[in-house]
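Researcher: We plan to redesign the surface later, but first we want a full-length starting point. Tokens attached.
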């Protein structure tokens, strides 16, 4: 099983980034996919989620209207489009795949830094 994030980097406030999460080794389309973020000294925070087959989405209040989650089941990939980035969005972003209450896979994370 592999869950690999990419697309992080340094961006100025107001800018945008698109994170990608490529999955392999499991049946991607059956898994709910989530993006979390974490800053040092704080708990990991759920940012956005999308149900298996793309039926429904969830966003934390802090990112509603700025972030958009989507998935491509043909490519086994989930995306997080992040617009109007703020300094407080700075964190390590993690991709998470869950299914059936027993399967729970995590990536290694990608750093997003918003700074002028």
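Model: Full-length starting sequence:
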């Amino acid at each position: 099983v592999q869950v690999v994030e990419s697309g992080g980097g340094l961006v100025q406030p107001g800018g945008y980034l698109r994170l990608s999460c490529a999955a392999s080794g499991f049946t991607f389309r059956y898994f709910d996919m989530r993006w979390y973020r974490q800053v040092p000294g704080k708990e990991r925070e759920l940012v956005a989620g999308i149900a298996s087959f793309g039926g429904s989405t969830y966003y934390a209040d802090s990112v509603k209207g700025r972030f958009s989650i989507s998935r491509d089941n043909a490519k086994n990939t989930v995306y997080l489009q992040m617009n109007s980035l703020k300094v407080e969005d700075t964190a390590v972003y993690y991709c998470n795949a869950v299914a059936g209450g027993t399967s729970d896979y995590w990536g290694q994370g990608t750093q997003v830094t918003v700074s002028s």
